[in-house]
Write a structure and sequence with these properties.
Elements: H1 2-26, H2 29-48, H3 52-81, H4 87-113, H5 116-134, H6 149-157, H7 160-172, H8 174-191, H9 195-241, H10 247-275, H11 281-309, H12 314-334
Helix pairs in contact: 1-3, 1-11, 2-3, 2-5, 3-11, 4-9, 7-11, 7-12, 8-11, 8-12, 9-10, 9-12
Length: 336
């Protein structure tokens, strides 16, 4: 399982980097459209076919479509960041997290009333509409990639400031690995929550991140450093306090953590938009997100072992303390 996880993360890093470079060269909207079109075929296949080999093929298409759409949407938001205001970033973060939260709550309820096939057909139609709509995104700036394009990317990615910032980011995003492997087991072990109640705990707390992101987007231009540091503190504090009992104290701690992550995510997007030139930001930003992917994989492997061996609350305590210890170093960087 660990081998497959690492292999998957490596493939994602390679794909995201290539897609980011293509976004700089050819723009984002065509890749967004193709991505959602591939996703629509994937959802249609789930409603129509039951043959393993056919579904295997469509799962490959769906995975490619998801990567194309996700990476290109991220590139598009960053490319617009310094020509408009931070509200774009806040809205982007809001819609992503709000969709996950509401989708988890409503999806389970709709499955109780309807069938999988109906939901797959709905996903097919909505993906087709999004693919068509994405073709009408505003005109984009593209990079004229010549012989020295590698040097242009390398100089920005390998600067001392970016390398040190990336190391700090790697340590911070280790906690995403904790959440991907230890979250549900922790809720079951500490509070006896079943899958349904764990879903409510997780998805409703995530709403705090959604609305925090929306608010943060409206003030990030003037208060990006304050939001960044405050987000770090609340994220670490929340990770620690969510291990406390009783359940309502843990839930409050989780909400605090989500608020912190919401502040961090928007201000982090704003910082990246200022670090890298707009014209090559697709390739450079997705390099940074590859670091996040590697950190999440590392955190999953390391902290899941700790949780299994000791207690599933321990990874949350360790990662929360690590985040708070990073604050002085991040202060040095963001006020550089």
């Amino acid at each position: 399982d660990l081998h497959l996880s690492l292999r998957r993360q490596r493939q994602m890093c390679i794909r995201d980097s290539i897609i980011g470079l293509l976004n700089d060269k050819f723009g984002c909207k065509i890749f967004i459209a193709v991505g959602f079109l591939l996703l629509s075929f994937f959802y249609l296949s789930l409603s129509q076919f039951h043959d393993f080999f056919l579904l295997f093929f469509f799962f490959l298409l769906g995975g490619l479509g998801m990567n194309l759409a996700d990476t290109s949407l991220r590139s598009f938001i960053y490319k617009r960041a310094d020509s408009r205001d931070g509200k774009d970033m806040g809205l982007f973060s809001f819609y992503v997290t709000f969709g996950i939260s509401i989708g988890t709550l409503i999806g389970g309820f709709l499955l109780y009333l309807l069938s999988f096939n109906i939901l797959f057909l709905y996903s097919f139609l909505s993906s087709c509409i999004i693919a068509l709509f994405s073709l009408f995104i505003v005109k984009e700036e593209k990079v004229e990639i010549k012989d020295r394009w590698k040097i242009r990317y390398r100089d920005h990615i390998l600067s001392k400031h970016v390398i040190f910032f990336s190391i700090l980011l790697f340590i911070f995003t280790l906690h995403w690995g904790v959440e991907s492997t230890c979250y549900a087991p922790f809720l079951k072990q500490a509070f006896g929550l079943d899958t349904y109640l764990s879903g409510i705990y997780i998805s409703t707390a995530l709403l705090a991140m959604s609305f925090t992101s929306l608010k943060a987007g409206s003030v990030v231009e003037k208060k990006s450093r304050l939001l960044f540091i405050t987000g770090l503190f609340l994220s670490g504090l929340g990770h620690i306090s969510m291990t406390f009992k009783p359940l309502h104290i843990s839930y409050i701690g989780r909400v605090i953590h989500e608020i912190g992550d919401g502040l961090f995510n928007v201000s982090f997007m704003w910082v990246l938009a200022k670090i890298f030139p707009k014209r090559i930001i697709g390739g450079t930003v997705n390099f940074v997100f590859n670091i996040i992917i590697i950190a999440q994989a590392t955190g999953s492997i390391f902290f899941s072992s700790i949780g299994y061996s000791l207690n599933y609350s321990v990874p949350f305590l360790i990662s929360g303390i690590l985040i708070i210890l990073l604050i002085p170093f991040f202060i040095r960087e963001v006020y550089h």
